[in-house]
Amino acid sequence: MRYFESSDGVRLAWRDERSARAGVPLLCLSGLTRNSADFDFVAPHLKNVRLIRMDYRGRGASQWADPASYTVAREAQDALELLDHLGIERTAILGTSRGGLIAMTLAATARERLAGVILNDIGPEIAPEGIAFIRSYIGTPPPWKTLAEAATARAALPGFEGVPPARWQAEARNLYEETPEGLKLRYDPALAAAFADADASALPDLWPLFDALEGLPLGLIRGANSNILSRETAAQMRARRPDMAFAEVPGRGHVPFLDEPEALGVIEKVLEDVR
Questions:
Q1: CA-CA distance, 122 to 225, in Å (whole number)?
Q2: pTM exceeding the 0.85 threshold for the entire prediction
């Protein structure tokens, strides 16, 4: 893990992993409360890429900041500043949930920096039930005392089928830190304040951001049981971009782990188009 300082003075963590034949830069952007460990499962499958991962401000190993700065716009700016720090002019983006919103924002504001985009279970319309579910847990201290308890609880999440216990154990380690007092979140609980006003009916029209991806290699991965990206929204996205690589991952809710064969097929197709 390495660090750089954003233009507003926040210390941000990042990882830069090159394969033996480093090729296309691939910036991996995680979900709302998640961190760069989200991509541990897919990383071994990504060949001939320069894999770059960033912890958003207030998440993972990055510094906590003013909660007012926990916005998609500021996080998009942070991503650009990381690319500048690394001297990367253009990159493909693999964006999970929040990361996909950041990718679409960059398509509308800094399109010349993008070489292609893969959206993991996110689109320009967010299902209200997904917003409600996020609201139910964000910023709340974990009720479990151990990582083992957390893994057992996560295994009961609706929408996921056939996931081995070892995967839920890894997920728990990525999300929580075990302390003598119990589990600790790996993000700033004040993130809940930044999310407090989020409401599906109050969101701006995000379709122009999706349309800004026109002409870029594009892929969409959807969990078949997702409560964030509806089948109807995915169908509208495909109608607007019939050239978009698409797969629905069976037995997955929000979000697929990205090492499923269906997800890997989309990722490889987009990266090949970028190359």
A1: 13
A2: yes
Handedness of CA 7, 138, 182, 60 (dihedral sign): negative
Please report the pLDDT score of residue 194 as a whole number: 86
- What burial class does residue 85 get, using C-beta atoms within 10 Å of its C-beta: 0-12 exposed, 13-18 middle, 19+ buried? middle
Using N-to-C axis directions, what is the helix angle for 72-86 and 98-109, rounded to 10°? 70
Peptide bond between residue 42 and the one before it cis (omega within 30 degrees of 0): no
Helices 165-175, 147-154: axis angle to 10 degrees equals: 120
Residues 6+ apart with CB under 8 A from 180: none
* Phi, psi at 69, each rounded to 5°: -95, 0
Domains of the chain plus CATH, in order, are: 2-139+204-274 (3.40.50.1820), 140-186 (no CATH)
In tens, the pLDDT along 38-54 reads 999 999 999 899 999 99
Angstrom distance (rounded) from CA 107 to CA 116:
10
